[in-house]
Design goal:
It holds the Pfam family ParA. By secondary structure, the protein is an alpha/beta fold. It is built from eleven helices and 14 strands. The protein is 32% helix and 21% strand. The protein starts with a helix and ends with a helix. It binds adenosine-5'-triphosphate (ATP).
Length: 369
Amino acid sequence: MAISRERVLEELARIEVPGGGNLVSRDLLRALHVDSGAIRFVIETEDAASARALAPVEAEAQRRLTALCGDQKVQIVMTAPAASKAPPPRAAAGAGGGRDAPPSMKIGRHPTPQAGPAPVSGVARILAIGSGKGGVGKSTLTANLAVALARQGRRVGLLDADIYGPSQPRMLGLTGQRVSGEGNMIEPLHAHGVTVMSLGLMMKEGEAVVWRGPMLMGALQQMLNQVKWGELDVLLVDLPPGTGDVQLSLCQKAQVSGAIIVSTPQDVALLDARRAIDMFDKLKTPVLGLVENMSTYICPNCGHEAHLFGHGGVAAEAAKLGLPFLGEIPLNLEVRLAGDDGTPIAAGDSPVAHSFARLAERLVAGGMA
Ligand SMILES: Nc1ncnc2c1ncn2[C@@H]1O[C@H](COP(=O)(O)OP(=O)(O)OP(=O)(O)O)[C@@H](O)[C@H]1O
């Protein structure tokens, strides 16, 4: 009989890790997927040395789970970033007791009354990149898609609207840099051919944003309208995960051409993706299509192709919903290392870079970017 997710977690909580605690209490598990056919998850470590130290733990997890389950296959992948990083600051909208004054440069104020969604001066199209669930690779996809589009000669902007955890400065190699201002206009930064604005470029590293809804709306409005975007063919907006204030504000304030939804093939991620699609429908923002991230995993040692989170689930979901399926990006350690390094993999010439290039081509060919 197939074992349940709870039973898997119970078993993994019995495996001690070097330095104390167990796989669960040390929060080392990611993307746990349990169904009747398979148990799959990622063990996320801080760096290559921790990954080596955890190799016996991975083997023990494999051994125990294989002994426990009947027909379920056990697939475990260990990942480690190039450099350890502090997690981005996160806080919930509406959280009380926090600072809700602007951090600097007067970003973060109450919104200016506006009749309806307005265009952003000089920007031909605005594409919202959303996901129902966090951690599916939305920011990674946005950064790489922006770079891939820029390499195809498009004039591309990227607005990091993941206000609670802006990760674009790190992914695009802009950590520690600041935007400058002139009058009430902000000069954005440029990286890998992309014009970039992020709240992370206005805050000290590790500084948390605790703004209430109206302050968020004001900050977003300013980042759209008080940034010298210049002439752009497309502005990609990296949204926070889920269906909250920022999504609502963006679609109410700006003329968004459409939304692209990123999901992994897991059922639970797809369920959340459906919620995101429903939200964009309600906001009357057309959903242009779905992208499957972490689609397949090619073992760098033996070349074996595994479908860690399943495969094809997003394409099937798109077909069911009558939406275009825009493409798939494999699960590949290089994607993550490149993101942590500040040079998105799409800037190079690897097979994964070609996956992003194909996605960009499809958007350009479809008049979306
Ligand atoms: N195709 C991929 N292959 C390998 N690692 C990936 C891939 N896509 C994303 N990742 C890694 O997964 C982690 C989560 O990705 P990312 O931050 O882009 O997700 P997100 O959906 O934007 O999350 P959040 O909304 O919570 O900020 C990162 O460490 C990233 O490097």
